[in-house]
Amino acid sequence: MDSLVTEFDGGVLTVRLNRPEKLNALSVELHEALVETWKRARDDDTVRAVLVKGTGERAFCVGNDTSEREGVPGVEEFMNNRIAAWDFRTIGLWKPVVASIRGHCIGGGLTLALACDMRIASDDAQFSYPEVARGVPNLTGSVMLPRLTNLGGALELLLLGARIDADDAYRRGLINRVVPVAQLDETAIETAHALAALPTVAAQLTKEIVYRGLESAPDTAVRMGKAFRQISHRVAESKEIAVEPVDRQTASS
């Protein structure tokens, strides 16, 4: 069984983690498959939005499959030096990405969800970062989480490993919407298609301005945004010129 399944419909690439027997834990194979999928999504102009979900009712993803590291040469080095499965920005995937979350969303699985631009969760979803309790400092989540919630709340989740439900995650700003389980797939798909229907250049440049703005001084981010806006206008103008019909009578005269 493939550890990753993809489907394409109407501009939306659905990416499904497919290891339900392991609660969709990220194996080495799944890491590599995800990275290659993000690259293909980046380079394929027909893909306008991405939807990420897990197989089964129990979990979106519970993080790295630590069982693979035991006694396997080279696995630890690979996991430490890989392009991470969640690292859309390093890969350059500026297309909108939505996470559809059901069940457990833990550790690296939560990091993958936080890396998405929007997160929609069913009312049975649960979230936690258990690394510190296991004697391992959390890395990427420690950077991402304080940007989405207040510092004290982030430290509570990171240090105490508190497990929170979907309503609590929504109050903390970790997810965008909570819906009944029966409505999760429909809501997530509708959201992804709404994003896919947006003007492509404007949507991608807006996403880049937002994320680069988080890492820049405000005046620098605004200047960059103005430059991107000019690019967007010129792209729109060039498309208008390209599709403008030619009046053959005027041309021949």
Question: Can you tell me about this structure?
Answer:
It is a single chain. The protein has 253 residues and is of the alpha/beta class. It folds into 2 domains: 4-196, Alpha-Beta Complex (2-enoyl-CoA Hydratase, Chain A, domain 1), CATH 3.90.226; 200-245. It has 11 helices and 10 strands. The protein has helices at residues 28-43, 75-81, 88-91, 108-115, 140-148, 151-160, 166-171, 184-196, 200-214, 218-243, 248-252; strands at 4-9, 12-17, 49-54, 59-61, 97-101, 104-106, 118-122, 126-128, 164-165, 177-179. Strands 1-2-3-5-7-10 form a 6-stranded mixed β-sheet, sandwiched between helices. Strands 4-6-8-9 form a 4-stranded mixed β-sheet. α4 (108-115) packs across α5 (140-148). Mean pLDDT is 87; it is low at 240-253.
Alpha-carbon distance between the two ends: 65 Å
Spans of 5+ residues with little confidence (pLDDT < 50)?
240-253
CATH topology of the largest domain: 2-enoyl-CoA Hydratase, Chain A, domain 1
Number of strands: 10
Category by helix and strand content: alpha/beta
Write down the Rg.
20 Å
If classified by CATH, what would the architecture of the largest domain be? Answer: Alpha-Beta Complex
Query: How many distinct helices?
Result: 11
Largest sheet: 6 strands, mixed
Shape: globular
Q: How do the SSEs run, as a string of H and E?
A: EEHEEHHEEHEEHHEHEHHHH
What would you give as the CATH superfamily of the largest domain?
2-enoyl-CoA Hydratase, Chain A, domain 1
What percent of the residues sit in helical stretches (DSSP H or I)?
40-55%
Q: What is the top-level CATH class of the largest domain?
A: Alpha Beta
Name the average pLDDT.
87
Strand-residue proportion: 15-25%
Trace the largest sheet across and list its strands.
Answer: 1-2-3-5-7-10
Count of discrete structural domains: 2
